[in-house]
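Q: Protein A?
A:
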Amino acid sequence: VAGLGNYGLRGTRHSVGMAVLEQLARQLAVAQGWRADRHCCADVAMATACGLELLLLKPRRFMNLNGLSVASAAETYNLRPEDIYLVHDDLDKALGKVAIKLGGSARGHNGVRSCITALHSNEMTRLRVGIGRP
């Protein structure tokens, strides 16, 4: 599960994917387990939910390069694109509304586009979190 955003701009609506992952880590009682993974250029934490092992990932790159971290993690942890869930902001959704999208285009989102390019696939599931238009 990758929370897309701008690592240096935490707390902004554009980095809501990372905020969602931080909350998920708290709910799964692994918030103290974040560690820097230099190979992936990301913060990672391992968790278990409903019998599934999860790798939580917060890229340490700007949004338009998040895919490099996601692709490195996929290679390191032997994940296929269809195993990956991307959590990201969506300007076209009202603030706080969420939707799940299975595959498809980036729809103008630079972080998703970066992931599609780096993974050579658009098969990732996306949790789109509405941030509304400014």
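Q: Protein B?
A:
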Amino acid sequence: RSGEMAKLTQLIDNEVFRAYATYATIVLLKMMLMSLITAYFRITRKAFVNPEDTASFGKGENAKKYLRTDPCVERVRRGHLNDLENIVPFLGIGLLYALSGPELSTALLHFRIFTGARIAHTFAYLIPLPQPGRGLSWAVAYAVTISMAYKVLKTALYL
């Protein structure tokens, strides 16, 4: 068991892995924030999807009027779903990339561009900013993940 712990310690000492952990944490916190923003909009717009969520607004027909969709809530939810579709692959591919031995400067460039693009995407979704802002920020982050995946495949499979 002590050998396993030594390996974990070596991993934590790896600068690229620490950079990955830093930026993975940032995008995960950003994604968690989207849940809070969704809850905020649900409460302030009184737009709920579950009957039990309307209990504090009355019973029966009075509470049913709060079982509805709201465009602002749906916009935040779509942004959150887009995070799930893009950040989850980044977490897996980014980890493999970090373990594939890239140069620190190259890894930082990948991680920073991805994180910046996802933050920009969130602002573009929530404000909303005119297109192509949201589309470009999505494409940049997606391209970064593809770039890391290519490096992993090239390193591991000698493509």
